[in-house]
């Protein structure tokens, strides 16, 4: 069995010996009905039987990102859905305000790493499951860490973190020359999110269904206030709070970095905001609102997390075993007016810079590799995404920025025509850059009359 | 400590420990203050949703959960985390190996122990401020032996129970005015429903709040405020800081003056008039005016739910009428008199690009009008109370103001008795869903009723034995046809795929399905207990294959 003890987590528990001793006869009776019996509404290639059950218990490794409201539920749900090898990554420690929903934590755990406590509690309750905690940022792990898992489940509360993981996972994706994704390079992701009584669950099969980047528009833009309103014409308590937070702090407390977790800092913001509100005859500045505005607190309750996480865990089971048909890729949940749970299938962006077979880039037929790199650096689609790109063609390095020895070896290519380097035809180039979280695939199209324009369509 | 109720012992956990804690707190110089601060921190993320009032309602709630398999346990877990007052578990079963495979609240070494007490102690440890009790008896037996037992609760959540037991429980709960919520997980399917005579919602908190700003009929004070502004001022800074509400009213007035008192015939016409007055297209107040112009040409109308409440038979009062219906009757009078067809103004004003001082002047005019409207409704409430022979001060000013602020979004929910639904024909809406091309979720509603009939006949659920699946599929099909016949849908068909899948699941209670169903049950409980948000209006079917749900308004 593949079990590992992370070097970065001294408390990572010894893998338990999983044998008959931790499985009482009949324990998985209910789940077995689904996994051992043939069905009609099942996914392609479902093979009912003990092997399928053993596969998710012994061989399938699932990473849960986030050990918060969704993460706690996900770990519990996956463990009780028969997944035997889980790992969880979270950089946070437990706060009192987590306890209304993060049911694995208690008052005595406040201040402890979430990942560590969550892993311990799940293993304590669900014997036989192994949960490895990672108390660190996702950025602290290199891509080979993420590559170990068959499925990655996301219980995150930020767009940035989702984008990051999405880029890493789509970076594993490789395409056949005909533009179809190579199945063994696909790493499915299941993503959940909640806010109050609302939430979503979605399945991302890179190369097959829209990735996070393809459907960024699904997320509403962040509300921000114009600085001149904050400074000159505040009208709401939030305007007063944001003024103190964004402007007055820097003026009055120069040299001090504002820390939202420092109660003295928060109290100061509240008091100053209350003063400002009074000056302008605005009512409604409270300590609670101050915290909400400054920390951008998203309201959260146990029930929505439970519903969304369980939906994610079920889809994870479906992906791993095909024991049931999968949902359409995006599930939207609203619980404010009755219960609304609907799914829809959205479209992949064929030119997505993260998951497509290649972002089309048109260049002159005579373009050298150096010129091609210059074109990429000027392209607004890649702005801030690349600075020193390395270029490769189907595993062959055309130009490498580092290490020096490879740079020197590939440098002569810079002056060669790209078309020659690519064997006379357009195609897919892989771009690596330290700014990229994954990989950038570019579809090169040469601007000549003899190039069939049909190839410009991309994959 | 044991408390006797009828035949059964209800065991209360850790009373002594709690009492000791309370004594400790009392000794402190500021008793309870620290505990309160801790509570507010712990519940911060939910207080931002349902507020102090909602939380207090939860803390007063006394909830009974019947059966604590994963569905009941998950529902209760979510409620215990949220800080309900107390709960009582009723479950007569012993813990089996299969409980370890689907229920997170069962500890590994507890096989063979009683489920009610085991789950109770795990939940109590999860949130010690919740009082935890249990009864080790089957809900069916308790329904027969001691119906009055259920009278002590605010809410009963019945999980994994058959239609036949639910019919009886429903009668009991209605007799004692106890809310009933039914939740069931069955393979990859689930069912949740509410049963109560009447549930009224003042704070519906709709997602899309109707902006009631009265631009189409400004009252005298608002008109006076508008006249204080010169919207054609030469000062460019002032010009772009006049609140959009003022712009809309003034531009509309000017239009009417130029068109013999006529309203603009279309939104486009009004927007053209607005555009003609702006100095440049980057004036934010004009942008806002254009966006809100529709409020002038199509001001908010009374919602059908509000009209239904106003015309409800309960709005005809008697001496036993509830606070809610007395206030509805007063609202009706207000609409016909002072309100001139409009409900009380809620007093809130959206942000408007303007100087602070201008905006606050606008706010004050709206707030004053809201106060005046509420005062008028209050006067009517007092006189109605007097007329029906009750204390004129029986309803507090705060309650009336709260009612007025939310008057546009009042909702009344009435649920048919479970027995009625089981014995009568289905409504036309349901019939339509059943006749649709994809009728999966409607068919599941029929099938979940069919499995109960199957179980009543064969004393087991379809598909529990591997060897009998094929026979069970045939039997279940014919049972489902009987159900269809009884609800007057004999022409409808139930997809064979679903019958087979139901038999494949063999009444399995999967943890994830239970987590969804229990999650929905907890969410609906919170809505019922706090009186906030809008609960399910009919039975819900959850389909975990498609990750969809359907609510049937039977």
TrEMBL record, chain A:
Q: Which domain of life is it from?
A: Eukaryota
Could you name the Gene Ontology cellular component terms for this entry?
A: cytoplasm; nucleus
Give the enzyme's EC designation. 6.2.1.64
E2 binding domain residues are: 361-447
Q: In which pathway does it act?
A: Protein modification; protein neddylation
User: Which CDD domains does the protein's record reference?
Assistant: Uba3_RUB
- Please cite one Gene Ontology biological process associated with this protein: protein neddylation
- One family from Pfam that matches here is E2_bind
Root EC class: ligase
Q: Name one GO molecular function term.
A: ATP binding
**Active site annotated at which positions?**
228
Listed A to Z, the keywords are: ATP-binding, Ligase, Nucleotide-binding, Ubl conjugation pathway
Reaction catalysed by this chain?
ATP + [NEDD8 protein] + [E1 NEDD8-activating enzyme]-L-cysteine = AMP + diphosphate + [E1 NEDD8-activating enzyme]-S-[NEDD8 protein]-yl-L-cysteine
Give the protein's biological function: Catalytic subunit of the dimeric E1 enzyme, which activates NEDD8.
What's this protein's family per the entry? Belongs to the ubiquitin-activating E1 family. UBA3 subfamily.
Q: What is this protein called?
A: NEDD8-activating enzyme E1 catalytic subunit
What organism does the UniProt record list as the source?
A: Marchantia polymorpha (Common liverwort)
TrEMBL record, chain B:
User: Residue limits of the THIF-type NAD/FAD binding fold domain?
Assistant: 43-543
Spell out the InterPro entries in the cross-references.
Answer: APP-BP1, ThiF/MoeB/HesA, ThiF_NAD_FAD-bd, Ubiquitin-activating_enz
Database matches in SUPFAM superfamilies: Activating enzymes of the ubiquitin-like proteins
Hey, which pathway is this one from? Protein modification; protein neddylation
Molecular-function GO terms, alphabetical: NEDD8 activating enzyme activity
What cellular component terms from Gene Ontology apply here? cytoplasm
Keyword presence, DNA damage: no
Q: Name one GO biological process term.
A: protein neddylation
Keywords annotated in UniProt: Ubl conjugation pathway
The family classification in the record reads: Belongs to the ubiquitin-activating E1 family. ULA1 subfamily.
Q: What does this protein do?
A: Regulatory subunit of the dimeric E1 enzyme. E1 activates RUB1/NEDD8 by first adenylating its C-terminal glycine residue with ATP, thereafter linking this residue to the side chain of the catalytic cysteine, yielding a RUB1-ECR1 thioester and free AMP. E1 finally transfers RUB1 to the catalytic cysteine of RCE1.
This one is known as: NEDD8-activating enzyme E1 regulatory subunit
Which source organism does the UniProt entry give? Marchantia polymorpha (Common liverwort)
């Amino acid at each position: 069995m593949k079990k590992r003890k992370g070097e970065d987590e001294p408390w990572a528990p010894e893998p338990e010996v999983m044998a008959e001793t931790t499985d009482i006869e009949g324990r998985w009776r209910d789940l077995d009905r689904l996994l051992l019996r043939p069905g009609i509404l099942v996914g392609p290639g479902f093979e009912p039987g003990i092997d399928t059950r053993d596969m998710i218990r012994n061989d399938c490794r699932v990473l849960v990102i986030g050990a918060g409201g969704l993460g706690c539920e996900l770990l519990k749900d996956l463990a009780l859905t028969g997944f035997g090898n889980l790992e969880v990554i979270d950089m946070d420690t437990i706060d009192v305000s987590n306890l209304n929903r993060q049911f694995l934590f208690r008052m005595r755990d406040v201040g402890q790493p979430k990942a560590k406590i969550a892993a311990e509690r799940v293993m304590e309750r669900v014997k036989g499951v192994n949960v490895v905690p990672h108390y660190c940022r996702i950025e602290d792990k290199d891509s080979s860490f993420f590559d170990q898992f068959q499925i990655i489940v996301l219980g995150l509360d930020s767009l940035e973190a989702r984008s990051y993981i999405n880029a890493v996972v789509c970076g594993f994706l490789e395409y056949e020359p005909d533009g179809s994704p190579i199945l063994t390079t696909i790493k499915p992701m299941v993503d959940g999110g909640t806010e109050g009584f609302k939430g979503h669950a979605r399945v991302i099969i890179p190369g097959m269904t829209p990735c996070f980047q393809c459907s960024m528009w699904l997320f509403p833009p962040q509300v921000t206030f114009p600085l001149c309103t904050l400074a000159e014409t505040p009208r709401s308590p939030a305007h007063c709070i944001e003024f103190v937070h964004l402007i007055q702090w820097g003026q009055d407390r120069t040299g001090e970095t504002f820390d939202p977790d420092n109660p003295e800092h928060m109290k100061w913001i509240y008091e100053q905001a209350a003063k400002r509100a009074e000056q302008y005859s605005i009512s409604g500045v409270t300590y609670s609102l101050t915290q909400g505005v400054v920390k951008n607190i998203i309201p959260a309750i146990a029930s929505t997390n439970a519903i969304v996480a369980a939906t994610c865990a079920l889809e994870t089971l479906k992906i791993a075993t095909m024991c049931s048909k999968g949902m359409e890729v995006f599930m939207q949940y609203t619980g404010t007016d009755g219960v609304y749970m609907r799914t829809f299938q959205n479209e992949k962006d064929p030119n997505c810079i993260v998951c497509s077979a290649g972002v089309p880039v048109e260049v002159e037929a005579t373009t050298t590799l150096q010129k091609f790199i210059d074109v990429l650096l000027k392209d607004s689609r890649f702005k801030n995404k690349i600075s020193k790109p390395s270029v490769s063609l189907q595993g062959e390095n055309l130009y490498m920025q580092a290490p020096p020895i490879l740079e020197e070896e590939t440098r002569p290519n810079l002056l060669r025509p790209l078309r020659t380097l690519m064997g006379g035809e357009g195609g897919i180039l892989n771009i690596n850059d330290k700014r990229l979280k994954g990989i950038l695939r570019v579809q090169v199209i040469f601007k000549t009359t003899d190039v069939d324009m049909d190839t410009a369509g991309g994959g | 400590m044991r408390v006797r109720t009828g035949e059964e012992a209800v065991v209360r956990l850790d009373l002594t420990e709690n009492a000791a804690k309370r004594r400790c707190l009392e000794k402190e110089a500021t008793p309870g203050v620290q505990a309160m601060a801790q509570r507010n921190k712990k519940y911060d993320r939910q207080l931002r949703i349902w507020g102090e009032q909602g939380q207090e309602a939860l803390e007063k709630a006394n909830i009974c959960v019947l059966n604590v398999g994963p569905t009941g346990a998950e529902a209760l877990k979510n409620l215990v985390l949220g800080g309900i007052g107390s709960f009582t578990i009723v479950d007569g079963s012993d813990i089996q190996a299969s409980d370890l495979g689907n229920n997170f609240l069962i500890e590994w070494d507890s096989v063979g122990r009683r489920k009610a007490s085991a789950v109770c102690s795990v939940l109590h440890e999860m949130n010690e401020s919740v009082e935890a009790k249990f009864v080790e008896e089957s809900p069916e037996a308790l329904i027969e032996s001691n119906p009055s037992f259920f009278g002590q609760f605010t809410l009963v959540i019945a999980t994994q129970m058959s239609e036949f037991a639910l019919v009886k429980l429903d009668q009991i709960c209605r007799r004692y005015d106890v809310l009933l919520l039914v939740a069931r997980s069955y393979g990859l399917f689930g069912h949740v429903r509410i049963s109560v005579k009447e549930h009224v919602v003042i704070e519906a908190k709709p997602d899309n709040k109707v902006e009631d700003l009265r631009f189409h009929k400004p009252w005298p004070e608002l008109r006076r405020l508008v006249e204080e502004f010169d919207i054609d001022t030469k000062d460019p800074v002032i010009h772009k800081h006049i609140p959009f509400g003022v712009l809309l009213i003034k531009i509309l007035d000017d239009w009417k003056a130029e068109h013999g008192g006529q309203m603009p015939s279309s939104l486009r016409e009004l927007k053209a008039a607005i555009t003609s007055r702006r100095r440049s297209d980057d004036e934010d107040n004009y942008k806002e005016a254009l966006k809100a112009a529709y409020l002038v040409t199509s001001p908010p109308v009374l919602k059908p739910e509000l009209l239904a409440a106003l015309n409800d038979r309960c709005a005809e009062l008697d001496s036993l009428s509830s606070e809610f219906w007395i206030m509805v009757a007063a609202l009706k009078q207000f609409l016909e008199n002072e309100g001139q067809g409009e409900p009380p103004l809620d007093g809130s004003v959206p942000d408007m690009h303007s100087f602070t001082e201008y905006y606050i002047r606008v706010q004050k005019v709206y707030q004053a009008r809201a106060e005046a409207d509420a005062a008028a409704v209050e006067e009517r409430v007092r006189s109605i109370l007097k007329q029906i022979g009750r204390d004129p001060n029986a309803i507090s000013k705060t309650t009336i103001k709260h009612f007025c602020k939310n008057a546009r979004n009042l909702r009344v929910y009435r649920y048919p008795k479970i027995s009625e639904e089981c014995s009568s024909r289905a409504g036309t809406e349901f019939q339509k869903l059943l006749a649709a091309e994809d009728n999966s979720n409607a068919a599941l509603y029929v099938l979940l009723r069919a499995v109960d009939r199957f179980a009543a006949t064969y004393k087991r659920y379809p598909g529990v034995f591997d060897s009998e699946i094929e026979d069970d599929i045939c039997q279940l099909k014919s049972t489902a046809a009987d159900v269809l016949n009884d609800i007057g849908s004999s022409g409808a068909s139930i997809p064979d795929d679903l019958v087979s899948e139901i038999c494949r699941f063999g009444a399995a209670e999967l943890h994830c399905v239970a987590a969804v169903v229990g999650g929905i049950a907890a969410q609906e409980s919170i809505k019922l207990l706090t009186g906030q948000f809008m609960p399910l209006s009919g039975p819900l079917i959850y389909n975990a294959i498609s990750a969809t749900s359907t609510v049937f308004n039977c």
